């Protein structure tokens, strides 16, 4: 039987038996094993209208340059094509409190501003990009690797007993299957990061051992130049933090911020401020900063930074379609 014929049979059986994506992926892995060299990628969509699953398979046959074949199989009683992708009227709505509605796009925008970290939009896109690679790899964890991953997951969160783990899962509203999926995904991402950064971490550390040192800073952006100059004379970070906090408590200045940056991300204004060159003009404010502590670069930190850079490159080239109506 040819690869394409087997692929059609797989899709029709998966649809007829209403199998879940995890089982469908297992069947695709078996098909890949029978046809070494074939590039297979399973796609699926769960219709919000009726909860049904629709599968597609992208196939590139081995030893050919004929392009990619997209296979789809639809039974007679499936959801009609005009209703595919139909959204319920309230799908853009995230939460309603005392009659006040908050939509998904607005919530993400608020969170991006409040967290002042990597934008939530970027993190959502990165999740899709990682899944794309992991699905193409088709690499599963064996029982021993899964147990190690689960143990590491629990240790990282201080879940040292079975009861503590169960309590955490109840608080997070996670089923056993959802917990396992979370652990597997985290372990697969760690493996992917190791593969992407292989050989590069040591090279980065050798080229500049301090480039990825983490600096813990006290940072104050003051609207008054004289007050900022007074704070800038406090060269020790604890003194700057105490003085700025006292001004904030008295209502005469902004709250000081504790921030963590790497030397690689230290912009010119911030570098000038922590060098003690007085308050640095920053728009309509004056920047004062001092180093509270330094965490030397670790291989783990460098690996995570290189992986983040790799994701940023893929994100810049990705075709992204937001599905939250006019805010997309």
Keywords for this structure?
4-stranded antiparallel beta sheet, 49% helix, 9 strands, 3 domains, 328 residues, alpha+beta
Compact summary:
This protein has helices at 3-16, 21-34, 104-115, 120-137, 143-156, 162-172, 176-196, 200-207, 225-232, 237-250, 268-274, 299-317; strands at 39-46, 53-60, 69-72, 93-97, 100-103, 214-222, 257-262, 280-282, 285-295. With 328 residues, the chain is an alpha+beta fold.
Structure report:
Helices cover 49% and strands 18% of the residues. It has 328 residues and is of the alpha+beta class. It folds into three domains: 3-83; 93-199 and 306-327, no CATH class; 214-295, no CATH class. The strands form three sheets. Strands 7-6-9-8 form a four-stranded antiparallel beta sheet. A three-stranded antiparallel beta sheet has the order 1-2-3, with helices on one face. Helix 5 crosses helix 7 (176-196) and helix 8 packs across helix 12 (299-317). It is elongated and about 80 Å long.
- The N- and C-terminal alpha carbons lie at a distance of 44 Å
Beta-strand segment tally: 9
Beta content? 15-25%
Q: What share of the residues lie within helices? A: 40-55%
Give the class from helix and strand content and strand pairing.
alpha+beta
Mean pLDDT: 81
Low-confidence stretches: 112-116
Characterize the largest beta sheet: strand count, sense, and whether it forms a barrel. Answer: 4 strands, antiparallel
Question: In oligomeric terms, what are we looking at?
Answer: single chain
Number of helices: 12
Q: Helix and strand string, N-terminal first?
A: HHEEEEEHHHHHHEHHEHEEH
Instruction: Work out the radius of gyration.
Output: 26 Å
Strand order of the largest sheet: 7-6-9-8
Q: Which term fits the overall shape? A: elongated
Number of domains: 3
């Amino acid at each position: 039987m040819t690869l394409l014929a087997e692929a059609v049979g797989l899709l029709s059986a998966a649809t007829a038996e209403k199998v879940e994506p995890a089982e469908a992926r297992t069947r695709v892995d078996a098909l890949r094993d029978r046809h070494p060299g074939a590039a297979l990628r399973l796609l699926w969509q769960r219709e919000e209208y009726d909860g049904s699953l629709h599968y597609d398979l992208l196939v590139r046959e081995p030893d050919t340059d004929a392009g990619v074949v997209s296979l789809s199989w639809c039974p007679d009683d499936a959801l009609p094509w005009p209703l595919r992708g139909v959204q319920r009227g309230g799908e853009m709505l995230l939460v309603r409190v005392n009659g006040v509605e908050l939509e998904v796009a607005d919530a993400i925008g608020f969170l991006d501003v409040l967290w002042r970290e990597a934008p939530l939009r970027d993190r959502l896109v990165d999740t899709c990009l990682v899944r794309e690679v992991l699905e193409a790899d088709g690499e599963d964890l064996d029982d021993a690797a899964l147990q190690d991953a689960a143990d590491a997951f629990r240790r990282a969160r201080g879940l040292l007993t079975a009861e503590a783990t169960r309590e955490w899962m109840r608080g997070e509203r996670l089923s056993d299957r959802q917990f396992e999926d979370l652990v597997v995904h985290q372990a697969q991402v760690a493996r992917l990061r190791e593969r992407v950064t292989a050989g590069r971490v040591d090279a980065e550390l050798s080229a500049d051992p301090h480039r990825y040192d983490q600096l813990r800073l006290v940072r104050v952006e003051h609207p008054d130049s004289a007050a900022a100059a007074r704070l800038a004379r406090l060269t020790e970070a604890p003194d700057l933090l105490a003085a700025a906090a006292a001004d904030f408590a008295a209502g005469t200045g902004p709250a000081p911020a504790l921030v963590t940056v790497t030397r690689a991300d230290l912009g010119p204004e911030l570098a000038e401020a922590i060098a003690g060159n007085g308050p640095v003009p920053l728009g309509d404010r004056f920047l004062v900063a001092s180093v509270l502590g330094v965490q030397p670069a670790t291989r783990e930190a460098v690996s995570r930074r290189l992986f983040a850079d790799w994701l940023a490159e893929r994100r810049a080239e990705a075709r992204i379609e937001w599905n939250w109506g006019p805010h997309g």
